[in-house]
Amino acid sequence: MGTQAERRFSTRKRLLDAASACLVESGYAALTTTAVAQRAGLSQGALFRYFPAKPDLLAATVEHLFATLTARYETRFAKVAAAGVVTAPAALGLLAEVLDDPRYLAALELHTAARTDERLRASLDAVVHQHSANLRRLAHALPLDLGTGDRELLDDLIDLATLALQGAAVHRMAVHETEAPRRVITALTRLAGLGRAAQRDGITAKDSRPRPKIQPRRARR
Hints:
CATH class of the largest domain: Mainly Alpha
Largest sheet: none
Oligomer: single chain
Number of helices: 9
């Protein structure tokens, strides 16, 4: 039967699983407390005992959704890491694969909705930043074929790849264009190669900035 705390945990998870499923299948606009309660097989009264208002349910759903995604990412990244050295294109392909999860696409819909929903934006803020940190942590754990001096380049590549692939996912949802992620991976791989070449030649971002011209001193009279 379980303790009361265990039953509460189980019921709460049941509601959050139902809310996540509603979000993935029907979208943010159709995510209602009625639909979530029905999917969970509970009354709305039971739902409101755990989440007094819809924004509370949304905030918890966001956190639950990203926690589920992170668990899946950890499993997938660990499997790839166990196979041996990972090339930059393979790492980018892995990132594109995990960001193609329907649950992640549903999370992107929440990003868009947060533009005009201040409470939702506040709920997303900390969770999204933590999710980005998790992706960076997992990427650093991969046996990548980058040199030890390429740590800063790797961080830049992770950030750029995540943002670019997010944009590609939104673009694909809007116009059903499936080639955008592949183009992003191709472009990022090329850029990563340029970055490594620059580092091999001893060129840094600081070195590449235009330097002020030094005016010759006038002879004293």
